[in-house]
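Sat 14:20. Reprocessing the chain from the morning session after the first attempt stalled halfway. Input below, unchanged.
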Amino acid sequence: MKNMQTKLDLTGLCCSVPQMLVYSKLKKMNRGDILEIIVEKGSSQEADVVRVLNYFGCSSERTERGEVSIYIIRR
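Finished this time. Tokens:
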């Protein structure tokens, strides 16, 4: 089975939409898959995404690029 790499750009989204999109992607990930999540740095959106990552027990790498934070999650 081929591993998947997916990019999820959540900039500009609000409310529970980012949480639900991340939750959905994480549930579908298989071992070896990679998910790149882009969020607005320091926003409530970023805090929501971090909560979902913690819920799933995911480890992630975080980098900053301009006004966004980028999270790389590997299953």
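The chain has one domain: 5-74.
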